[in-house]
Q: What sequence folds into this?
């Protein structure tokens, strides 16, 4: 038990730059307290003491603002940052090394008892703030879920899911994923402008339309300059010789007819 506590404290010290000491982590981090109480509740649940497990879970919810069903399975080195409003359902499974931010729901979409209703998170998954992962599917190892995303279908390993409903960006190797995430400005606290592929497409269309508008304006300026030069030239220079002869011939013929 104490080994697990030291392990949890070490992972918080590693991932949270705001953590300054182990004493601070042990006494002031509700995510750690929620995990400790969940282990007690889960042990009671596994040994058939369902009411006792639910009661311990209820105490944990009251003290930390984090609701974890005693039937949920949570791996090692899981970090629940801030944690207020986190809800983890009965059949949810959270793999080793996952990071979960505030307001996350690992919920279900089915009311059938005895079925897998809640999601399974693989190893090292990051679930951004206020996102909802709903259903009995799997989120692959190393996947990332942007904040505010509503995920209702499986996410491949190493992929990023953003938006509502969530759109899955193709999985990449670890190195490629880190480069892409840096370019996109991935943030577990908020979906930035570069996170959403639809937003990226709209920005491309807007930029293209803006470029075309600029080209049209330049064409109009060129036409106006040519028109101004044409007005400044003498009439003989503007009208072709053939046109002048034809015009003179037509004027003479008209005068004879009028006489």
A:
């Amino acid at each position: 038990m104490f080994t697990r506590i030291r392990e949890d404290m070490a992972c918080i010290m590693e991932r949270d730059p705001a953590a300054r000491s182990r004493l601070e982590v042990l006494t002031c981090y509700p995510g750690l307290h929620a995990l400790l109480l969940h282990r007690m509740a889960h042990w009671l649940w596994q040994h058939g003491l369902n009411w006792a497990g639910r009661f311990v879970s209820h105490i944990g919810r009251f003290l930390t603002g984090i609701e974890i069903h005693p039937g949920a399975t949570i791996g090692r080195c899981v970090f629940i940052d801030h944690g207020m409003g986190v809800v983890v359902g009965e059949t949810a499974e959270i793999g080793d090394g996952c990071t979960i931010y505030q307001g996350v729901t690992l919920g279900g979409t089915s009311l059938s008892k005895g079925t897998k209703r809640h999601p399974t998170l693989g190893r090292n998954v990051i679930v951004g703030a206020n996102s909802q992962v709903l259903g009995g599917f799997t989120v692959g190892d190393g996947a990332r879920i942007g904040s505010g995303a509503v995920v209702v279908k499986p996410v491949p390993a190493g992929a990023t899911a953003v938006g509502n409903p969530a759109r899955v960006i193709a999985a990449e190797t670890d190195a490629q994923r880190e480069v892409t995430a840096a370019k996109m400005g991935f943030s577990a606290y908020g979906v930035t402008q570069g996170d959403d592929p639809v937003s990226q497409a709209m920005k491309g269309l807007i930029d293209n339309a803006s470029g075309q508008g600029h080209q049209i304006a330049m064409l109009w300026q060129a036409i106006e300059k040519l028109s101004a030069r044409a007005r400044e030239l003498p009439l003989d220079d503007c009208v072709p010789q053939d046109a002048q002869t034809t015009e003179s011939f037509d004027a003479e013929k008209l005068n004879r007819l009028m006489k």
In short: The chain has a mean pLDDT of 82. The longest helix spans residues 197-232. Residues 202-258 form one domain.
